Amino acid sequence: xxxxxxxxxxxxxxxxxxxxxxxxxxxxxxxxxxxxxxxxxxxxxxxxxxxxxxxxxxxxxxxxxxxxxxxxxxxxxxxxxxxxxxxxxxxxxxxxxxxxxxxxxxxxxxxxxxxxxxxxxxxxxxxxxxxxxxxxxxxxxxxxxxxxxxxxxxxxxxxxxxxxxxxxxxxxxxxxxxxxxxxxxxxxxxxxxxxxxxxxxxxxxxxxxxxxxxxxxxxxxxxxxxxxxxxxxxxxxxxxxxxxxxxxxxxxxxxxxxxxxxxxxxxxxxxxxxxxxxxxxxxxxxxxxxxxxxxxxxxxxxxxxxxxxxxxxxxxxxxxxx
Amino acid sequence: xxxxxxxxxxxxxxxxxxxxxxxxxxxxxxxxxxxxxxxxxxxxxxxxxxxxxxxxxxxxxxxxxxxxxxxxxxxxxxxxxxxxxxxxxxxxxxxxxxxxxxxxxxxxxxxxxxxxxxxxxxxxxxxxxxxxxxxxxxxxxxxxxxxxxxxxxxxxxxxxxxxxxxxxxxxxxxxxxxxxxxxxxxxxxxxxxxxxxxxxxxxxxxxxxxxxxxxxxxxxxxxxxxxxxxxxxxxxxxxxxxxxxxxxxxxxxx
Lengths: 322, 254
Ligand SMILES: Cc1cc2nc3c(=O)[nH]c(=O)nc-3n(C[C@H](O)[C@H](O)[C@H](O)COP(=O)(O)OP(=O)(O)OC[C@H]3O[C@@H](n4cnc5c(N)ncnc54)[C@H](O)[C@@H]3O)c2cc1C
Ligand SMILES: Nc1ncnc2c1ncn2[C@@H]1O[C@H](COP(=O)(O)O)[C@@H](O)[C@H]1O
Fold this sequence. Notes:
The structure holds 2 protein chains of 2 kinds. By secondary structure, chain A is an alpha/beta fold. Chain A contains 9 helices and 17 strands.
């Protein structure tokens, strides 16, 4: 079986989940199978020096483009698939992967499963576990090869970084594909982390949609102040404009690893968990006992978050530094 | 510009999900269905584009409660509304509906198809890239700003860590909207009542043209709690325990 593990990078760095895709392929590779890493972007050098866990690297070098539009990435991947005839293509669930995976499936007609957490081989097929309904349900599926899987970041460990044997690196120019793409990148905005940097915060109080309205953010902010914590929010809270974008935790927000993560009214969708599941101590308060946040919480409470914030603030204020 | 926006009704996953008897789906009988959040943002983006540059907006809704949502879409400014009939009880799979959406886009001479970036039911793939690939139109997912730009669009996409990328793209195009440029608007009861007179067109599903993606052998609920401890639902008790837990973890002091 031949597998293509899709990898990504921005500027001169590769994304950490690239190593997870290579490891996901490796984890089901038998003797004689081949794991081919596919990379498209500016960091072709970094790819060659870190994807050694793959048997080969095919790198489309976008020397003049900080970030490659998904349309160009998908075209380059399609050419690679046509040339390599793989049995399986693993695409990360990333902003780029969201556009690439179904595009490839539609144009090849191959099956596609998204939000994949586990992959096992079963003869000519794969047994795959995928998440649905915001992580509330797991689907055990049988997929016939050839197929495309879109894999959740964090579902597999990273492969050991190391250089790819120079003879096993096949490099070509990505610029023609980028230049002919109907989608042109015109700007990259990287936020200024000077004001808030959740990635270095030791304590975080995160509010989800359960907080209900903008005015209620204040009571969570007060608790955060008492705890010496930064206030953060899930996507809907930030989308509603109740907290600034730099305070969003998750897939399109920040990936945090504080000593304390107190989640109030957060359901724990996979895109949220991706940003915080490695926190040292996770405490979750949610009235729904089936909320997926409880799958990663060290302590969970099913009371109303407003009641809890009130009683906890009272106690912490009554005996500060107890 | 002619815009087609897709509105999918999905089970409210904040509610309780029960597995169907055959274990291959969820029991839809008592479920609350609501408009997919991201599709709500897609609708808003469509209406904002209409207000900004005079587009016509056709809304297609799929699933239980489609009529109600289409009235809401009309009240917010959609010019034409169509309910796409699917099998009762079937989950709304992007792979299954993509061909019909692509055909509707052609029939309505759409320049732009807007859908939510994902739904909780698109385990077999996301709608925007399927439709884009079927039409061979460029597609971008995860947008949070869409502006007309000459003959095309200027589109901003969310990446990780707060990084945003802006693209210029030609029309026709397909977008998977994550967040509209402005939060979805509220419609008044009087506007809703007025819009309830809007005729709702009907359409049926065409063959998908795809092979079945995979066989769902079994759905299951994740093992709850993991190794986590349940502190119960009494706020006073929980607060007492948390004070102790914070202290035990050296987190009592700032
Ligand atoms: C490409 C992509 C990227 C994304 N990136 C992110 C990201 O970076 N960060 C992110 O968070 N999401 C992200 N999402 C969105 C994600 O899928 C979810 O929609 C989101 O995390 C849900 O936020 P929530 O938990 O606050 O809201 P909900 O899912 O609506 O949950 C609210 C919860 O509050 C509980 N609740 C309500 N009232 C109370 C109360 N009084 N007391 C206690 N509990 C209460 C409810 O039971 C419910 O579980 C992304 C999605 C996509 C497609
Ligand atoms: N104050 C509250 N206390 C307990 N549960 C709530 C509260 N508000 C909302 N919920 C539940 O949280 C879920 C999502 O709420 P909403 O986003 O307000 O629709 C629903 O299942 C509600 O039943």
